[in-house]
Amino acid sequence: MPARPILIDCDPGVDDAVALLLAFAAPDALDIRAVTTVAGNVSAGLTARNACVIRALAGREDVPVFAGCTRPMVRAPIEAEHFHGESGLGALAFDAPARGPETEHAVNAIVRIVSEAVQPVTLVITGPCTNVALALLLAPGIADNIAEVVVMGGARSEGGNVTASAEYNIFADPHAAHVVLTMAPAVTVLGLDVTHQIRATAPRTAALAGLGGARAAAAANLLDFSSEVTRAWGQGEGAPLHDPATIAWLLAPHLFTARPARIAVEMSSPITLGHTAVDFHVTAAETGVRWVTDADAEGVFSLLNARMAP
Ligand code: RIB
Ligand code: CA
């Protein structure tokens, strides 16, 4: 089967970095047309730099990186440096990348790449939805050449991770999430309900580190850092594999369960801003949105190990 054309929009960010390592390691299945970056976990300058660092580490200088929006559409920016470290890549040691981002803005790059694609492109969003939302508003017609938007974000039964009721990516730009959910033709959302099922426990990261090779070592380093923070915050054993779950969905959808949903985003309440109201009283014929409810965590880590192995 030919590789699926995708574009990854991200805010690396420790787990974004692992998602990129996984995607970069699957050229047989994923034809990565570009990586676009957005302000989120850390500043826009750092997320762009970090995407270039991971690209170099993965040996994928063939994939262009485009820096994007430096702030959300409406609300004030909120970063997550406390979780991702000052660099945004946790405790990972790295050299400055030889190749930086292109000069074209990410929003313009998304419009151009999707418009020019011969077959529909899958967009993966693992940070705030700002870039993709603006691309859809700038050129609504690109929706006709989008196969699917896969978003890491939101929470239903799990509750929030940045407030009582909101997950970070949606909280960081709720208006952008609303635009994507209402303008994209097909959206698959992996929220905390499923990512909290996929935990980077110590045995799992030890197995990853034991594979040998630079990318497995980097993935284990990044996940160990996240797990330390997760543990320190009393949020359980092992960092949730938030962003890598979007790539695992594309590589092995059989490892997941998804169901049709209507998802509304709270955009004004000071208490529940960014909350995702996920309603299952809808059929697949009535909505283009799916909410992922379950994952085979062991299967996801087997997939990650197989792709990270030297
Ligand atoms: O809530 C988890 C999400 O917020 C992940 O994308 C993580 O990178 C942070 O951006
Ligand atoms: Ca992210």
Taking the sheet with the most strands, its summary is: 8 strands, mixed
CATH topology: Inosine-uridine Nucleoside N-ribohydrolase, Chain A
N-to-C order of helices and strands: EHEHEHHEHEHHEHEHHEHEEEEH
The CATH class is Alpha Beta
The CATH superfamily title: Ribonucleoside hydrolase-like
Helix count from the secondary structure assignment: 12
**Class by SSE composition:** alpha/beta
Supply the number of structural domains: 1
Given the C-alpha coordinates, what overall shape results? globular
Number of strands: 12
How much strand content do the residues show? 15-25%
Radius of gyration: 17 Å
State the distance separating the first and last CA atoms. 23 Å
Architecture in CATH?
Alpha-Beta Complex
Helix content: 25-40%
Which small-molecule ligands are present, each listed once?
alpha-D-ribofuranose, calcium ion
Mean of pLDDT: 97
Main β-sheet, spatial strand arrangement: 3-2-1-4-5-6-12-9
Enumerate the spans where pLDDT stays under 50 for 5 or more consecutive residues. Answer: none
